[in-house]
Amino acid sequence: MDSWLDLDPDAPFGLGTLPYGVVSPSAGGDRRVAVAIGGQALDLAAAAGAGILGPRLVTEWFAADSLNRFMSTGPTMWRELRERLVELLSASRHQDRTRGVLVERQSLREWLPWDVTDYVDFYSFEAHAKATARIFRPSSPELPPSWRSLPIGYHGRAGSVVVSGTEVTRPRGQYLDDAGAVVDGPTRKLDIEAEVGFVVGVGRDGPARLQEDVLEDHVFGVVLVNDWSARDVQRWEYVPLGPFLGKSFATSVSAWVTPLVAFDQARVEGPPQDPLPPPYLAGCDRRGIDLRLRVDVNTTTVAEPPFEGMYWSPAQQLAHLTSNGARLRTGDLYASGTVSGWEPGQAGSLLEASLDGTVPVVLDDGTQRGYLRDGDTVTITARTGRGPRVDLGPVVGRVRPPLAEPF
């Protein structure tokens, strides 16, 4: 289906994507919920106020500084709005009224699009898990004994989630120096983790377990995630309770949330699971999404990880994180873990790509990177590999020098 906007078919955010974000005029003004279409944004608060969206879609959901109120309305309302937006942007009879609520995106400031109530990060790509084990635990088995029995994850800090474009200050922490002494200083091994995140729209109180229809009933949309990691700090602190200060300083997410329903034609079966997991996981939808990620450091593409190989599906991850009776809330975020494949050029972290800095990645300007330098800019993008083109909002972050002591 084509739009009367005459969009470039090779440009992101076409009629098949229609992601949601929160924006305000760059010069200042109130925030409001918008939908991106090509290089423009459709102001949903203005559209609802003008009666363009229909009587069931109310202005108060969109004259807001987050998506949370609209996300909590549930999948019936999500689909109703999406269908109405497609009609408004494709049927020429609507163009005069709709043009009045369109704004050029370059004139807008993008904000964190939802209030993040909780954050969980998984570890569900076998290639990444094994590569990390060979570096961090060379004398131990490549996979923990539980890895094929349940989706392993850690509980992150919701307050450290930042919107794409936010600069990331090089964190400080404890780690071992080259002589084996414990030091406290700026990380020497600042890394990328290219991930895909799932944003919960409809919450649920425990203790009932979520299973077969868990994803479509509860997940509103999908974002890209950069789970920045200080590898030297992580290595020193993570035994026995897992990541803490090595990751909690910043997690970047897209400014635009692509609705889950947009990926209906890009769903794919995940890899075989052997042994068969317990029934609460085995009964879940095992489909993933055929997404092709790209990771750029400055102007150089350093990785193109395939998302379709994730061992534990998004539905299984959500079922597991609630399986002990934990609550699910509007605004919860859970991420896939580092997306990595088995082939050269498919590592979603510099830890893997450079073998912990021992085989540096060469950038287009001739410089080398074992890990990130101050001033580097990391950009992660993704689009579907099958079906109509659907894009994820990019996630971009530039590394700032560490704060001077005392701070």
TrEMBL record:
Keyword Magnesium: yes
Domain Fumarylacetoacetase-like C-terminal as annotated: residue spans: 121-395
Boundaries of every Fumarylacetoacetase N-terminal domain copy: 18-107
Enzyme active site: 128
GO biological process terms held by the UniProt record: homogentisate catabolic process; L-phenylalanine catabolic process; L-tyrosine catabolic process
Stored InterPro entries: Fumarylacetoacetase, Fumarylacetoacetase-like_C, Fumarylacetoacetase_C_sf, Fumarylacetoacetase_N, Fumarylacetoacetase_N_sf
Coiled coil: none
EC nos: 3.7.1.2
Superkingdom of this protein's organism: Bacteria
The keyword Kinase is assigned to this record: no
Pfam family, one: FAA_hydrolase_N
Record: residues binding Mg(2+): 227, 247, 251
Pathway(s) it belongs to: Amino-acid degradation; L-phenylalanine degradation; acetoacetate and fumarate from L-phenylalanine: step 6/6
GO MF entries: fumarylacetoacetase activity; metal ion binding
Residues given in the record as Ca(2+) binding sites: 121, 193, 195, 227
Residues reported to bind substrate: 123, 137, 234, 238, 338
Keyword annotations: Calcium, Hydrolase, Magnesium, Metal-binding, Phenylalanine catabolism, Tyrosine catabolism
Gene3D superfamilies referenced in this protein's UniProt entry, alphabetically: Fumarylacetoacetase, N-terminal domain, Fumarylacetoacetase-like, C-terminal domain
Designated name of the protein: fumarylacetoacetase
